[in-house]
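To whoever is on call:

I kicked off a structure prediction for a single chain this morning and the downstream step that reads the tokens threw a length-mismatch warning. I double-checked the sequence; it's 239 residues and nothing unusual in it as far as I can see. Pasting both halves so you can look.
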Amino acid sequence: MNIVRLDKYVSHSTGLSRSEVKKLLLCGQITVNGSVIKSGDMKISESDSVLCRGKLCIYKKNVYYMLNKPQGYISATEDGLHKTVNELFPEEISKRVFPSGRLDIDTEGLLIMTDDGELVHRLTSPSHGVKKVYYAKLEGIVRAEHADIFSAGIPLGDFTAKPALLDILSIDDKAGTSEVRITVTEGKFHQVKRMAEYIGCKVTYLKREKIGSLCLDEALEPGEYRELTEQETDILKKE
């Protein structure tokens, strides 16, 4: 940890806003190495012991959460028309994190919420080629030759999708439906849906299951989240 101001240290450790921290400082609720401190500009290092309302503050430069995004929410921090994924978090987390990439409003599944801009760029930039795996239900029958079309790259008008992997999970000829798993290394606007349309199918359900080596925690119901473990964070940073 680099040397940081006391108010920033407490804010990042507790999720409190700077103004809330300032009030606690003025009330004598924050101590450094046993001494009450009332100024937020004091410099704090790793060797210092900081308590807020009697609880030890553990500084976190960045935070990382796994969200099972439900349908009906957009991948944004705020919006005037729709509910946002940030609304699924308590205020102390919501005001700090933002979504890593986007899932359509009707798409479910794995979404990383963080304040680490460098990691977001790594996970979302096509140049890094991080794999994203989706489970999809389709109207239309997928055949083996469609996998070859996906692996060759699909021209979508405004761009050509990079080679992708199409795994056929099941086909119901009578109902005219298919279940597939699609792996892409991009994630552009409506990309998976548009790739399905290219082969004459329509996505009726879409869920992201995996980003790089990180799988969605099956214990998380839609709308639920948990903090990533240190090991999971390290894995994402190496993707």
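Update from on-call: the warning came from a stale cache, not from the record. Cleared it. Sanity check on the structure: The two ends are 23 Å apart (CA to CA).
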